[in-house]
Amino acid sequence: MSTTTPDPRLAGLLEGARALQPRTVALRRQIHKHPEQGLQNPKTQAAILHALDGLPLKVTKGESTTSVVAVLEGDQPGPTVLLRGDMDGLPLQEDTGLPYASEVDGNMHACGHDTHVAMLASSARLLADRRDALKGRVLFMFQPGEEGHHGARYMIEEGLLDDGVEKAFALHITSTLKSGVVTCRPGPMMASADTFHVHVKGRGGHGAMPHNALDPVPAAAAMVGAIQTMLGRRISVHEPAVVTVAQINAGTTTNIIPEVATLDGTIRTLSEATRALVHKELKQAVKHTAAAYGCHAEVSIVPGYPVTVNDDAVGKHVVDLAARAMGASWSEPMEYPLMGAEDFSYVLQRVPGAMAFLGACPRGIDLEEAAPNHSNRVLFDEAAMEHGVAMYAAFALDALR
């Protein structure tokens, strides 16, 4: 359907979201003040349940996590569409100066998950008023543990997708995109994220007599270069891959050659084939470098989130849908994927769907200067949440026509 063709199913969505904005903002700020991490977010769960109270929803709480699943039945039978919002915070000390800043030391909603929860809850209210236009069911997925804790996988293991889901959609807010703009792309959207750990063993000795020892420190230092050379010479330039050595540790004082050095870091790729190849080549580069220095190295790679891959048709359709729901100026194709990672990837492995980004750069701040997600100074323009609420609702209404 052309982006200029009126769509009666989507009429009034943005206005409806705007009318709900005070409720959306209030929920967001409540959650922002009380961030929780990991798979257990009881205060956030309670806030969600309170926000959904009174709506015609079948609500289920998670068993192994504090997830919430709410189902809205349309007036007519049909397939199920999933809408997801994650709910956990990050281990950061907030430094925004906001009047509703985190009241929990060392905890902050620095990735906007508080806005995701609030937008999804208001979209449930918006869609509940439009049940007569729904031919099927809407499943609202409120998920803890996105920040490295595999919350989506736990929810799937508890049966989230067992009754069949035809399409799935998630929004992620970002401070580095114009406020209110929705952007999406087909295919790879975000990277896989694996962690690697290297244990280099040599032979300790006196710092004044290195010839009597096997120093693991030069070996570890050489591995950093070897890994980057491996990326440039063993991985195709057409297959994006990032390997970052984020930690190097060795020794206890200045005059002792240590017996052990360690390296730790992250691996990011945009395809499962490249992911497997990087794992293989990294292990070889590390072990051969260690051998060249007379040391021994053990490498362990801990699998993280898979590549987040948008369905081709759905990814393209989201861009068009945003234009139809909110106007062409609020829709933008996304040219390149991001090398960050998302556990919505677990859902998209099983269900055709897409993740999109919602811009929320604060007004008056240049996009290039805005503090990014995961910064202790990140700010989000709350006005963008109206568009997020409308977009969640538009996806469901469009899919269940």
Secondary structure tally: strands: 16
User: How much is the radius of gyration in Å?
Assistant: 24 Å
Assign a percent range to the helix content: 25-40%
Query: Could you describe the largest sheet, including whether it forms a barrel?
Result: 8 strands, mixed
Oligomer: single chain
* Chain-averaged pLDDT: 96
Number of helices: 10
Write out the strand line-up for the largest beta sheet, numbering strands in chain order.
1-2-4-3-5-16-6-15
Features:
single chain; 401 residues; alpha/beta; 8-stranded mixed sheet; 4-stranded antiparallel sheet; 32% helix; 25% strand
Task: Walk me through what this model shows.
It is built from 10 helices and 16 strands. It is of the alpha/beta class. Strands 1-2-4-3-5-16-6-15 form an 8-stranded mixed sheet, with helices on both faces. Helix 4 crosses helix 10 and helix 6 (216-234) runs antiparallel to helix 7. The model has no long low-confidence stretch (mean pLDDT 96).
Short description:
The chain is of the alpha/beta class and 401 residues long.
